[in-house]
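Checklist before submission:
- one chain only
- standard amino acids only
- sequence pasted in full

Submission:
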Amino acid sequence: MDAETQRRSTAAQQALKGVEGRGNALSEVAMTGMPKAQTGGVLAVLVKITNKTAGEASYAVRIDFRNGSGKVVETRYVGAEHLKPGEKKQPIAFSHEPAEPRLTPVLAQAQRY
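Returned file contents:
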C-alpha cells in the first residue's frame, strides 16, 4: 500500500470514529467485486463514491470482509476527500486475507463529512 493510500485509509478510519449506525452516505457509495485476474489473485472491491450533495464533501467508507458464518475477519477503510458536487472517486479495498476460505465484502459504514 502506498503512502497516500495509507493516509486516506487512516483519515477514513478517524472520520468514522464515533459514527453511530451505518453513517449518512450509504446512498452515495456502491461496491463492485473485481476479477481476481485483475488483482493478482486477491479479493478486492471497487468502491464507487459519488458526491450527490450541492457542496464539497469528503467521504469515509468501512468495508467488512465476512466469512461464511457472517463473522468479520478483516476490515478495510477507504475514502475520498474534497469531492465537488457530482464528482466521483473509485478507491479499491484490498483484502489481505488468504483466498480461502471465501470472504464476502460488506459495505459496513459510509459517512459524509
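Reviewer check: Residues 3-16 form the longest helix (14 residues).
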